[in-house]
Specification:
Elements: H1 16-20, E1 24-33, E2 42-43, E3 65-71, E4 86-91, E5 110-115, E6 147-156, H2 165-168, H3 176-186, E7 192-194, E8 215-220, E9 235-240, H4 242-246, E10 254-258
Antiparallel strand pairs: 1-6, 1-7, 2-3, 2-6, 3-4, 4-5, 8-9, 9-10
Amino acid sequence: MKNSIIELPESLEKYRDKIEKTIKPYVKIKLKEQETKPWESKLGGNPYLEIGMEYPKASNGECLRLLAQINFEEVPKIKSFPQKGILQFFILPDDVYGLNFDDPCMQDTFKVIYIPDVEKNEENLIKDFSFLGDLEEDWYMPFSSEGKMNFSLEYMPIPWGEYRFNNVYKDISLTDEEDDEYMENLNIDGCKIGGYATFTQDDPRDEEELNSFDTLLLQLDYEKECDLMFGDAGIANFFINEEDLKKLDFSKVLYNWDCC
Protein backbone atom coordinates (compact mmCIF):
# COMPACT_ATOMS: atom_id res chain seq x y z
CA MET A 1 0.00 0.00 0.00
CA LYS A 2 1.65 3.25 -1.10
CA ASN A 3 0.22 6.73 -1.01
CA SER A 4 -3.44 6.52 -2.02
CA ILE A 5 -3.16 3.29 -4.05
CA ILE A 6 -4.67 0.32 -2.27
CA GLU A 7 -5.66 -3.15 -3.34
CA LEU A 8 -9.34 -3.86 -2.85
CA PRO A 9 -11.30 -7.08 -3.12
CA GLU A 10 -13.74 -7.04 -6.00
CA SER A 11 -16.73 -6.66 -3.68
CA LEU A 12 -15.37 -3.33 -2.35
CA GLU A 13 -14.10 -1.86 -5.62
CA LYS A 14 -17.32 0.14 -6.09
CA TYR A 15 -16.49 2.00 -2.85
CA ARG A 16 -12.92 2.86 -3.87
CA ASP A 17 -13.36 6.65 -3.93
CA LYS A 18 -14.98 6.63 -0.50
CA ILE A 19 -12.35 4.33 0.99
CA GLU A 20 -9.39 6.24 -0.45
CA LYS A 21 -10.64 9.49 1.10
CA THR A 22 -10.08 7.94 4.53
CA ILE A 23 -6.43 7.02 3.93
CA LYS A 24 -3.97 8.32 6.52
CA PRO A 25 -0.21 7.98 6.85
CA TYR A 26 1.16 6.11 9.84
CA VAL A 27 4.54 4.97 11.08
CA LYS A 28 4.96 1.21 11.19
CA ILE A 29 7.12 -0.07 14.05
CA LYS A 30 9.24 -3.20 13.75
CA LEU A 31 11.08 -4.54 16.78
CA LYS A 32 14.53 -6.08 16.95
CA GLU A 33 15.56 -7.71 20.20
CA GLN A 34 18.73 -5.96 21.36
CA GLU A 35 20.11 -3.56 23.94
CA THR A 36 19.75 0.12 23.14
CA LYS A 37 21.37 3.43 23.91
CA PRO A 38 19.60 5.63 26.48
CA TRP A 39 18.14 8.00 23.85
CA GLU A 40 17.09 5.42 21.25
CA SER A 41 13.53 4.38 20.42
CA LYS A 42 12.79 1.15 22.24
CA LEU A 43 10.42 -1.30 23.81
CA GLY A 44 11.31 -1.81 27.47
CA GLY A 45 14.87 -1.43 28.69
CA ASN A 46 16.03 1.56 30.69
CA PRO A 47 14.56 5.00 29.99
CA TYR A 48 16.31 8.17 28.97
CA LEU A 49 16.72 9.98 32.29
CA GLU A 50 18.95 12.97 32.84
CA ILE A 51 20.71 13.40 36.17
CA GLY A 52 18.34 15.47 38.33
CA MET A 53 15.18 14.26 36.60
CA GLU A 54 12.61 12.56 38.82
CA TYR A 55 11.83 8.95 38.02
CA PRO A 56 8.06 8.47 37.41
CA LYS A 57 6.06 6.80 40.16
CA ALA A 58 2.44 5.97 40.92
CA SER A 59 0.71 7.87 43.72
CA ASN A 60 1.38 4.96 46.09
CA GLY A 61 5.12 5.38 45.58
CA GLU A 62 5.59 2.37 43.29
CA CYS A 63 8.05 2.96 40.47
CA LEU A 64 6.51 2.64 37.04
CA ARG A 65 8.42 0.75 34.35
CA LEU A 66 9.28 1.81 30.83
CA LEU A 67 6.90 0.31 28.30
CA ALA A 68 8.12 2.22 25.26
CA GLN A 69 10.23 5.21 24.29
CA ILE A 70 10.14 7.07 20.97
CA ASN A 71 12.84 9.45 19.81
CA PHE A 72 11.15 11.50 17.08
CA GLU A 73 14.47 12.30 15.42
CA GLU A 74 14.36 8.65 14.28
CA VAL A 75 10.73 8.67 13.13
CA PRO A 76 9.40 9.56 9.64
CA LYS A 77 7.54 12.86 9.84
CA ILE A 78 3.75 12.81 9.97
CA LYS A 79 1.33 15.67 10.53
CA SER A 80 0.81 16.99 14.08
CA PHE A 81 3.46 14.75 15.68
CA PRO A 82 6.66 16.11 17.26
CA GLN A 83 9.63 16.76 15.01
CA LYS A 84 12.12 16.05 17.79
CA GLY A 85 12.33 15.04 21.42
CA ILE A 86 11.58 11.82 23.29
CA LEU A 87 8.14 10.53 24.24
CA GLN A 88 8.05 7.92 27.01
CA PHE A 89 5.28 5.56 28.08
CA PHE A 90 5.47 4.14 31.59
CA ILE A 91 3.10 1.62 33.18
CA LEU A 92 2.71 -0.11 36.52
CA PRO A 93 3.77 -3.74 35.98
CA ASP A 94 0.76 -5.31 37.63
CA ASP A 95 -1.66 -7.96 36.36
CA VAL A 96 -3.52 -5.41 34.20
CA TYR A 97 -0.40 -3.56 32.94
CA GLY A 98 -1.30 -0.37 34.77
CA LEU A 99 -4.74 0.07 33.20
CA ASN A 100 -7.30 1.88 35.37
CA PHE A 101 -10.63 0.50 34.18
CA ASP A 102 -12.60 3.17 36.05
CA ASP A 103 -10.62 6.07 34.60
CA PRO A 104 -8.34 5.10 31.68
CA CYS A 105 -7.20 8.73 31.37
CA MET A 106 -5.84 9.07 34.91
CA GLN A 107 -2.06 9.21 34.67
CA ASP A 108 -1.25 7.47 37.92
CA THR A 109 -0.64 3.81 37.14
CA PHE A 110 0.59 4.92 33.72
CA LYS A 111 2.35 8.10 32.59
CA VAL A 112 3.25 9.68 29.27
CA ILE A 113 6.24 12.00 29.47
CA TYR A 114 7.67 14.26 26.75
CA ILE A 115 11.27 15.47 26.83
CA PRO A 116 11.77 18.14 24.13
CA ASP A 117 15.57 18.34 24.19
CA VAL A 118 17.74 15.26 24.13
CA GLU A 119 21.19 15.05 25.73
CA LYS A 120 23.46 12.49 24.08
CA ASN A 121 26.38 12.79 26.51
CA GLU A 122 26.02 9.72 28.71
CA GLU A 123 27.94 11.44 31.49
CA ASN A 124 24.83 13.59 32.03
CA LEU A 125 22.45 10.62 32.09
CA ILE A 126 21.49 8.13 34.77
CA LYS A 127 22.90 4.72 33.87
CA ASP A 128 22.35 2.77 37.10
CA PHE A 129 18.71 1.71 37.51
CA SER A 130 19.37 -0.88 40.21
CA PHE A 131 17.11 1.18 42.50
CA LEU A 132 14.16 -0.28 40.60
CA GLY A 133 14.93 -3.75 41.90
CA ASP A 134 13.35 -6.93 40.61
CA LEU A 135 9.65 -7.10 39.91
CA GLU A 136 7.51 -8.50 42.71
CA GLU A 137 6.12 -12.00 42.31
CA ASP A 138 3.14 -12.03 39.92
CA TRP A 139 4.07 -8.55 38.59
CA TYR A 140 5.25 -8.42 35.01
CA MET A 141 5.52 -6.42 31.82
CA PRO A 142 3.89 -7.41 28.50
CA PHE A 143 7.23 -8.42 26.93
CA SER A 144 10.21 -10.55 27.84
CA SER A 145 13.07 -8.66 26.18
CA GLU A 146 14.22 -5.15 25.35
CA GLY A 147 13.85 -4.24 21.69
CA LYS A 148 15.03 -1.47 19.40
CA MET A 149 12.33 0.16 17.29
CA ASN A 150 12.75 0.62 13.54
CA PHE A 151 10.31 2.73 11.55
CA SER A 152 8.80 3.02 8.08
CA LEU A 153 6.13 5.32 6.64
CA GLU A 154 2.98 3.50 5.48
CA TYR A 155 -0.64 4.32 4.59
CA MET A 156 -3.97 2.83 5.67
CA PRO A 157 -7.73 3.43 5.29
CA ILE A 158 -10.06 3.62 8.26
CA PRO A 159 -10.44 0.12 9.71
CA TRP A 160 -13.69 -1.66 10.51
CA GLY A 161 -14.51 -1.13 14.19
CA GLU A 162 -12.91 2.32 14.51
CA TYR A 163 -15.32 4.64 16.32
CA ARG A 164 -15.74 6.90 13.25
CA PHE A 165 -16.27 4.04 10.81
CA ASN A 166 -20.08 4.07 10.79
CA ASN A 167 -20.24 7.84 10.43
CA VAL A 168 -17.75 7.83 7.53
CA TYR A 169 -19.84 5.22 5.70
CA LYS A 170 -23.26 6.33 6.89
CA ASP A 171 -24.54 6.82 3.34
CA ILE A 172 -23.74 3.27 2.25
CA SER A 173 -24.85 -0.07 3.62
CA LEU A 174 -22.25 -2.82 3.57
CA THR A 175 -23.53 -6.36 3.31
CA ASP A 176 -22.30 -8.98 5.78
CA GLU A 177 -19.97 -10.29 3.10
CA GLU A 178 -18.58 -6.81 2.43
CA ASP A 179 -18.12 -6.26 6.18
CA ASP A 180 -16.08 -9.46 6.34
CA GLU A 181 -14.05 -8.50 3.29
CA TYR A 182 -13.33 -5.07 4.76
CA MET A 183 -12.14 -6.53 8.08
CA GLU A 184 -10.00 -9.16 6.40
CA ASN A 185 -8.33 -6.91 3.84
CA LEU A 186 -8.29 -3.35 5.19
CA ASN A 187 -7.75 -3.65 8.94
CA ILE A 188 -4.02 -2.94 9.37
CA ASP A 189 -2.84 -4.35 12.69
CA GLY A 190 0.65 -4.20 14.16
CA CYS A 191 2.69 -1.73 16.19
CA LYS A 192 2.34 1.81 14.92
CA ILE A 193 2.38 5.55 15.53
CA GLY A 194 -0.50 7.57 14.08
CA GLY A 195 -2.96 6.37 11.48
CA TYR A 196 -5.90 4.39 12.85
CA ALA A 197 -6.10 2.02 15.79
CA THR A 198 -7.31 -1.56 15.66
CA PHE A 199 -8.77 -3.63 18.48
CA THR A 200 -9.42 -7.21 19.50
CA GLN A 201 -12.65 -6.08 21.18
CA ASP A 202 -14.20 -2.59 20.87
CA ASP A 203 -13.01 0.97 20.42
CA PRO A 204 -13.37 2.62 23.88
CA ARG A 205 -13.97 5.95 22.13
CA ASP A 206 -17.47 4.77 21.23
CA GLU A 207 -18.31 6.33 24.58
CA GLU A 208 -19.19 9.99 23.99
CA GLU A 209 -17.00 11.32 26.81
CA LEU A 210 -13.93 9.79 25.11
CA ASN A 211 -14.64 11.06 21.57
CA SER A 212 -12.11 13.87 21.90
CA PHE A 213 -9.18 11.42 21.91
CA ASP A 214 -9.12 11.42 18.13
CA THR A 215 -5.46 10.63 17.43
CA LEU A 216 -3.56 7.38 17.88
CA LEU A 217 -0.35 8.17 19.72
CA LEU A 218 0.99 4.63 19.96
CA GLN A 219 -0.27 1.12 19.31
CA LEU A 220 1.53 -2.00 20.55
CA ASP A 221 0.29 -5.24 19.05
CA TYR A 222 1.31 -8.88 19.48
CA GLU A 223 4.84 -9.49 18.15
CA LYS A 224 6.94 -12.65 18.42
CA GLU A 225 10.01 -10.44 18.57
CA CYS A 226 10.62 -9.56 22.23
CA ASP A 227 7.60 -11.75 23.11
CA LEU A 228 5.38 -8.66 23.11
CA MET A 229 1.83 -9.54 24.11
CA PHE A 230 -0.90 -7.89 26.17
CA GLY A 231 -3.03 -10.63 27.73
CA ASP A 232 -4.09 -13.19 25.14
CA ALA A 233 -2.75 -11.73 21.86
CA GLY A 234 -4.10 -8.31 22.84
CA ILE A 235 -3.54 -4.79 21.52
CA ALA A 236 -2.65 -1.71 23.60
CA ASN A 237 -3.44 1.84 22.47
CA PHE A 238 -2.62 5.34 23.67
CA PHE A 239 -4.83 8.16 22.31
CA ILE A 240 -4.62 11.94 22.47
CA ASN A 241 -6.57 14.92 21.15
CA GLU A 242 -4.89 16.26 18.01
CA GLU A 243 -4.82 19.85 19.28
CA ASP A 244 -3.11 18.75 22.50
CA LEU A 245 -0.61 16.79 20.41
CA LYS A 246 0.22 19.86 18.31
CA LYS A 247 0.82 21.79 21.54
CA LEU A 248 3.01 18.95 22.87
CA ASP A 249 0.66 18.69 25.84
CA PHE A 250 0.59 15.06 26.96
CA SER A 251 -1.24 15.62 30.24
CA LYS A 252 -4.48 14.11 28.86
CA VAL A 253 -4.00 10.70 27.28
CA LEU A 254 -6.36 7.73 27.01
CA TYR A 255 -4.76 4.33 27.64
CA ASN A 256 -6.55 1.12 26.72
CA TRP A 257 -5.75 -2.49 25.98
CA ASP A 258 -7.95 -5.45 25.21
CA CYS A 259 -7.42 -9.06 24.21
CA CYS A 260 -9.22 -12.12 22.89
